[in-house]
Amino acid sequence: MSLSDFELEVMQLLWELEEATAPQLHKLIAQRRPVKYTTVKTIIDRLEKKAALQRSRTEGRTIFYAPLTVKKDVRGSLLKDFINKVFLGKSQPLAAHILEEEELSIDDIEYLEKLLKERKQELQ
Amino acid sequence: MSLSDFELEVMQLLWELEEATAPQLHKLIAQRRPVKYTTVKTIIDRLEKKAALQRSRTEGRTIFYAPLTVKKDVRGSLLKDFINKVFLGKSQPLAAHILEEEELSIDDIEYLEKLLKERKQELQ
DNA sequence: CTTGCATAACTACAAATGTAGATATATGCT
DNA sequence: AGCATATATCTACATTTGTAGTTATGCAAG
User: Fold this and answer.
1) Which pLDDT belongs to residue B103?
2) Name one GO biological process term (chains A, B) (predicted).
């Protein structure tokens, strides 16, 4: 099951919030860029049809939605697609690209070094 | 300028081959999955309109196409978008995800360790 | 108990995308 | 020279996506 950019944006908020209403989600996204309530609601409806989220409870006639998909799973599958499409299926060039070009702090780097050391030990 | 999945697939081949004809590209892609010549040619035409590639020369009435965009630039901009959308703009969680979950050989790991060491030295 | 409003539900539409048919035409072969 | 064929060009169409208008309706306040 694939998510569009906008659908993913809504899911990111839901993963963060655990649950949320359409008006809440609209207000959050409207802080970033101008978008009408009905637009956000349409995206929520589509996510519901795709079973990426579900209605968790209501308050008055306002509906709360909660994620049905797990962030790590979705990220993992998006990453796999991305590596296939953009880096011809090879993770190493992507990792190299990030470690060389993307912004990383000293702490980030030391944490990543630790991960690599652990990874290497598993392989030996 | 954004590229669709199919457009990117054609560009990946062009970056590899330096230049190619529509029939060549069609044959290569058709090895992976069934697709008609005209479909591939449509994508090439769209890439030409987007100025991602250009006609480099002809042989008879067959046209050779060459990339106008640079692989590293396109990858960089796609990666930036991807990090923004999927990892909320933070490279470190993506790097961590890859170093933990994706397949890497000992050689890969040692190369990445070297990159990190160099990166750290630049920062200090 | 009515009514205005917030929210939900439904409908619409243009642009991008994957897909390919229909048509035109230059070239190389007989 | 005429013709078959490969290639190019043009047109079309369904689906997905972002975007939002229109309509329906339940609830809260007076």
Assistant:
1) 92
2) negative regulation of DNA-templated transcription
